[in-house]
Write a structure and sequence with these properties.
The chain is α/β, with parallel strands linked by helices. The chain is 41% helix and 18% strand. It is elongated, with a radius of gyration of 20 Å. It catalyses: hydroxymethylbilane = uroporphyrinogen III + H2O.
């Protein structure tokens, strides 16, 4: 019976867009919940004036470190656009990845990931990377415009040269503003799910601009990653579920476990 599904009757805000957002929303419905998809971040190619320079000296980088799936895909799109190499798997650089999904994205280009940390945060990455690898540098770090500088700063503190190539831009889709305001005003949301600090910052900007503070008091927040969790907490809100493994599937699983535990306590 549908009443026995873990998210039965729960209203959940999904702030991730694209196919991943649609997939998550569908899974919430299958678990008995009501989902509201409102993408609070989107991505586009960044026109970096230094792109040609990075490409021309690509062979000089000892390591290329990827911190997100977007970083991977936009990086290889840039190489293709600038006709930097004929085959992606001909790269001679050593490759590192933060997160299992980032690693999978790299491997889709038939490229081996040499270093993959046991923990997924940028801080843990630096600690493990420096400990396990003798890094001389230089290092190339393809990333988004709002990505953390933790890895770059950590390497620079060890006197390792780092070039941060901004390969994509993160922005708030304008059409999502009115949609979010309507959803918050007209529905009693139980949970809101966030996959990045940027999406939560955008959420709070809208809340502030439209005076929705009272409307979100009962919403419980679910996140991926320490950085996203910290962003929520810095606004004074509590994160009720955040998985150890930074994937959307694990985030949904952690929400289900939370809701099941709540029902058992009744």
């Amino acid at each position: 019976m549908i009443e026995h599904l873990p998210l039965y009757g729960k209203h959940v805000l999904v702030t991730r867009g694209g196919e991943k957002g649609k997939k998550l929303a569908g899974e919430i419905i299958n678990l008995g919940g009501v989902s509201y998809v409102t993408p609070l971040i989107d991505f586009q190619e960044n026109d970096d004036s230094k792109a040609q320079t990075y490409v021309e000296k690509l062979h000089e980088y000892e390591w290329i470190i990827f911190t997100s799936q977007n970083g991977v895909d936009y990086f290889f799109n840039e190489l293709k656009k600038l006709k930097a190499i004929c085959k992606f798997d001909s790269l001679t650089n050593r490759i590192a990845a933060v997160g299992s999904k980032t690693k999978e994205a790299i491997e889709k280009y038939n490229i081996e990931v040499e270093f993959f940390p046991k923990q997924f945060s940028a801080t843990d990455f630096i600690a493990e990377f420096i400990k396990e690898k003798e890094v001389a540098g230089p290092v190339l770090l393809p990333k988004g415009n709002l990505a953390s500088k933790t890895i770059a700063k950590g390497l620079e503190e060890k006197r390792i040269h780092v070039d941060e190539w901004i390969v994509y831009q993160t922005f708030l889709p304008p059409e999502s503003i009115e949609k979010l305001v309507t959803i918050v005003n007209e529905n009693e949301l139980d949970y809101a799910m966030f996959t990045s600090p940027s999406s939560f910052h955008h959420f709070m900007n809208i809340v502030k601009d439209y005076s929705l503070q009272n409307k979100i008091q009962k919403i419980e927040f679910v996140t991926i990653g320490d950085v996203t969790k910290k962003a929520v907490e810095e606004y004074g809100y509590k994160v009720v579920a955040s998985p150890a493994i930074y994937t959307i599937d694990c985030m949904l699983e952690s929400l289900c476990k939370l809701q099941i535990a709540k029902e058992e306590r009744k």
